[in-house]
Amino acid sequence: MKKALLPMTLAAALMVASGAAVAADWGLGVEAGSAKISDGDFEPSASFVRIFGSLPLTNKVGLEIGFATTGKADEKYEDGKIEASYSGLDAAAVFRPISAAPGFFLRGGLTLYTLKIDSQYDDGFGTETSSSSESGIGYSAGLGYEHEVGPGALRVVFSVNPGIGGNSEVGSIVFGAGYSVKF
């Protein structure tokens, strides 16, 4: 059931978007920044990039569908190192709840990310390596601010992504900035 949830959400979003596209300005954008990937013991940072499409449904509610990826976050220890990265799709509802501050927004949705973890350590007899990859559904919640400039808007975002790759023990915190263009 969990694996069917994201495709069903994306299909519903596309059906709503196709009906609303005639009356609204859709947009394309990019965000870049830093992602702190954490499992409680391991908390390195990596570069983060997200490319997204957006569609306002009303003046307060919209949709975003994107692709996000990180660089390798690595943490070195005396006898080894761990590297982690993730990439995948996301779909989110965007809410603009404050009329007096129209640039402020809240964002919440689902993620379908693949988490990759590589580790290497010296056990005294030689170097041991291991690699793992997990894919699964998680969720994302965040907030941001947009300021209109030219044909689009500059944006600053903060989001929390628990359950990266469907692993409830691994999450990320993202700080980023970007630009979106309206069409």
Notable features of this structure?
183 residues; mainly beta; 8-stranded antiparallel beta barrel; 1 helix; 9 strands; 10% helix
Can you walk through the features of this model?
This protein is mainly β. The chain has 1 helix and 9 strands. An 8-stranded antiparallel barrel has the order 1-2-3-5-6-7-8-9.
Strand order of the largest sheet: 1-2-3-5-6-7-8-9
Order of helices and strands: HEEEEEEEEE
Tally the beta strands: 9
| Biggest pleated-sheet summary | 8 strands, antiparallel, barrel
Ranges where pLDDT stays below 50 over 5 or more residues in a row are 8-23
Q: What's the Cα radius of gyration? A: 18 Å
- Mean pLDDT, to the nearest integer, reads 87
Q: Please estimate the helix content.
A: 10-25%
Structural classification:
mainly beta
The number of distinct helices, counting runs of at least 4 residues, comes to 1
Net shape: elongated
Strand content: over 45%
Oligomer: single chain
The N- and C-terminal alpha carbons lie at a distance of 36 Å
